[in-house]
Specification:
- With 260 residues, the protein is an alpha+beta fold.
- It has two domains: 113 residues, Rossmann fold (3-Layer(aba) Sandwich); 133 residues, Sandwich (Tumour Suppressor Smad4), CATH 2.60.200.30.
- It is 17% helix and 38% strand.
- It contains six helices and 17 strands.
- The protein has a six-stranded antiparallel beta sheet with strand order 6-5-16-13-8-9, with no helix packed on it. It has a six-stranded antiparallel beta sheet with strand order 12-11-10-7-14-15, with no helix packed on it.
- A hairpin with a 2-residue loop joins β14 and β15.
- It is elongated, with a radius of gyration of 20 Å.
């Protein structure tokens, strides 16, 4: 059965440079009707989580849903890969709407840079020197000095990515929370981070920025030599992912917390 606009809406099939993903994409295009990327209502993305993030960033100004098939290492944001039954899987898929973080960064030369992050915004030291950060939440200083390799603010969707590797908490989808997680913290030694309401603005001030330079990274977009970074949820942007009902994103986040 061919996937048509009548069945599920116009679909586009895209793939990462992975040879297996490219082969699978060609097989799907031969079997199912597809349209150019800018005409699609559903994008079928074949690759890993990194490719999914790249694809999602390309949909920020469009009303389009993305259904991923895993050809990567982890595939947390992806469904299982199978050529059969694509139309049925898409018609039965469950929608998950996400809102990205907006990063506004000021650099030592006074310039400002903005970027959106679906997973997290990270501040990272650029040299062998530890970073020194002051943290404000909604304008109130909550930590005068954090000495660390860096810190990050993660969305629920991103809480199982870099945030989890930095020993941050896993956040269920729909919890309306953000994770503020230190990276290799030195002082205060026992501070593990914080869970924050998603509506707040998180501000980092880089202390001693010339001696201890810091970069800010929104997913994969890096701004170097920052002195101030503000991070807040951008409710004006909505990203839509599609998941097979038996393996949806909320279930994955719950299940991840019971992994050995």
């Amino acid at each position: 059965m061919n996937a048509t606009e009548t069945d599920i809406g116009a679909i586009a099939i895209v793939a990462s440079e992975n040879e297996q993903a490219q082969t699978a994409a060609n097989a799907l295009r031969a079997r199912y009707s597809s349209v150019p990327l800018d005409e699609a209502k559903i994008i079928v993305a074949l690759g890993g989580d990194g490719f999914m993030l790249e694809t999602l960033h390309g949909t920020l100004e469009r009303d389009v849903a993305v259904y991923g098939m895993n050809f990567g290492s982890v595939g947390f944001l992806m469904n299982s890969c199978a050529e059969d039954g694509l139309a049925e899987r898409l018609s039965q898929a469950e929608r998950v709407d996400l809102h990205p973080l907006r990063m506004s960064a000021k650099t030592v030369d006074g310039s400002r840079h903005e970027a959106l992050a679906i997973n997290e915004v990270s501040l990272l030291r650029q040299t062998h020197q530890t970073a020194k950060l002051r943290i404000r939440i909604d304008g109130r200083t909550r930590m005068e000095e954090l000495i660390c390799d860096g810190a990050l603010v993660a969305t629920p969707a991103g809480s199982t990515a870099y945030n989890l590797s930095a020993h941050g908490p896993i956040i269920p989808i729909g919890a309306e929370l953000l994770a503020l997680t230190p990276i290799s913290v030195f002082r205060p030694r026992r501070w593990r981070g914080a869970l924050l309401p998603e509506r707040v603005a998180v501000n980092f001030e880089v202390l001693d920025a010339e001696k201890r330079p810091v970069s800010a990274v929104a997913d994969s977009e890096e701004v170097r030599n920052v002195i101030e970074v503000e991070i807040r949820r951008d409710a004006s942007k909505t990203l839509t992912l599609l998941f097979d009902p038996e393996h949806n994103l909320e279930e994955r986040i719950v299940a991840e917390q019971f992994q050995p």
